[in-house]
Amino acid sequence: MKTIEVVAALIECEGKLLIARRDASGDQAGLWEFPGGKVEAGESQPAALVRELWEEMRINATVTGFVATSEVQHAARLIRLHGWRVSGFTGTITLQCHSEIRWVTPAEVLSFELAPADIPLIEAYLMKLAT
Question: Which family does the record claim for this protein (predicted)?
Answer without folding.
Answer: Belongs to the Nudix hydrolase family.
